[in-house]
Amino acid sequence: MIRTMGLTTEDKFICDLPIDGFFEQAWQWYWVDFDQPNAEEAELLYSLFNFHPLSLEDCFERIQRPKLDHYEGYTFFSLHSICHEDLNAEELNLFLGDHFVVSFHYTHLQEIDKAREMIMQTSNKWERGHVHVTYEILDQIVDQYFPILYNIEDHLDEIEEKLSPTTVQLSMDYVFEVRGDLLRLRRTIFPMRELLYRMLESNRLSFTPHEQMYFSDIYDHLIRLSEMIESNRQLTSDIRDSQLSINSNQMNSVMMTLTIISSIFIPLTFIAGVYGMNFDRMPELHLRYGYPIVLVAMLMIGIAMIVWFTYKGWFRINKT
């Protein structure tokens, strides 16, 4: 599907004019959007617009890293939108000329729909409408990054607040999943930040100070997003370290409990082993009260060891 809009030399804003008669008009600026194009429509990029083969190769071979390339008569952008469901990157290609914008994407993007709505509402906001279109597309793409990161932050804060020995394993699984998501976002947002920086510093893109201010605002948003990613990655590391500490403390607690039990039963096992040797001439075997005496002795030894361990603070360590 090909969607069009633009402003004629007669200051008439026209939307969704068929591509066949589109260039019969004289345009101040125009935007042609290739939304999920078929092979015949994609061929128009070469036959109708005569774009450079290298830019078309980058356009057709998904998925490129976000980048910016200058060609004679236009600048080629490869941008990344992010799907909210699976956080996979969706490629959007832009061709920005002196008075036109051509966008090309194999996946239907909500950001393009929102940008079209904004352009229709503010078609005369900027004199150079094609630069305004580029700004709106970039702004909508970057704005859609924020809810994803806000959602991740909320989940991480919730995990940090509810972190306990009973939720350690579940939290660990989710933290490693989040770290993977943050890595995927980082691979998109950091190159997008570099792309905006190159746009602002490029001499080939003659933005006016007014336009520069708007694109600088998008760049500031990307810097903020980059900082959010790094802070969230650091937070996942802190949560992971806390979880490892909880696991270690649990293991120490279990080992301490087992050590106390073993230490109490070692002397008792020794006494039981001595009187279980079945020698004929053992003096205590024929005592009338030998059995209760030994039981009482074993009980007293156990109590004495428990008192000693309590005095040494072993049970306090066991509870922490």
Describe the structure in brief.
The chain is α+β, with helices and mostly antiparallel strands and 320 residues long. It has nine helices and seven strands, in the order βββααββββααααααα.
Number of helices: 9
Task: Give the strand order, joined by hyphens, for the main sheet.
Answer: 2-1-3-7-6-5-4
Unreliable segments of 5+ consecutive residues: none
Largest sheet: 7 strands, mixed
Which outline best applies? rod-shaped
DSSP, total strands: 7
Q: How large is the share of residues in beta strands?
A: 15-25%
Class per helix and strand makeup: alpha+beta
Distance, first to last CA: 65 Å
Global mean pLDDT: 84
| Rg result | 36 Å
Structural notes for this entry:
- The protein is built from nine helices and seven strands; from the N terminus they run βββααββββααααααα.
- The protein is an alpha+beta fold and 320 residues long.
- The chain has a seven-stranded mixed β-sheet, with helices on both faces.
- The longest helix has 66 residues, at 209-274.
- The two termini are 65 Å apart.
